[in-house]
Amino acid sequence: MTEQPQVSLVKLGSTDLVLADPGDDIRGRTVVDAAGDKVGKVDGLFLDQDEEKIRLLEVVDGGFLGLGKESRLVPVELVRSVDDDQVVIERDQSTLVGSPAYDPELTDAPDYFSGVYEYYEIGPFWAPGAIYHRPPFHP
């Protein structure tokens, strides 16, 4: 497991911060896999406060009136494309649906975010030599 330094990620909606470009706000857009199958909707964006960069998307699926919904975190490195209505992710629906559930109580645990990146088999943003992958937020 890649050792994780103290990572300070916050959910953008839980802060007074705003995106510099409102066009980058993809919350509410449908998330689909590479084959076009619906996975859920972008419910939140997780910001690396130190670097002021979006690192993770919170994708929510299912539920009615907030009951039974499931949230998962998806690294921005997996965003293939974005248009006015949807976000395309470079993994299939079963991979995204099978990913670990987002648990806000665990975000301070040292290995929590490491586990997310390991599940998707990509290096975490804090690893030596990591290059920031700015999602293609603008259509």
Automatic annotation (TrEMBL):
Residues in PRC-barrel domain copies: 24-93
Stored SUPFAM superfamilies: PRC-barrel domain
Gene3D superfamilies according to UniProt: Photosynthetic Reaction Center, subunit H, domain 2 (3.90.50.10)
GO cellular component terms, semicolon-separated: plasma membrane light-harvesting complex
Pfam families linked to this entry: PRC
Biological process (GO), any one: photosynthesis, light reaction
Taxonomic superkingdom: Bacteria
Protein name: Sporulation protein YlmC with PRC-barrel domain
Species in which this protein is naturally found: Kribbella italica
Source organism phylogeny: Bacteria, Bacillati, Actinomycetota, Actinomycetes, Propionibacteriales
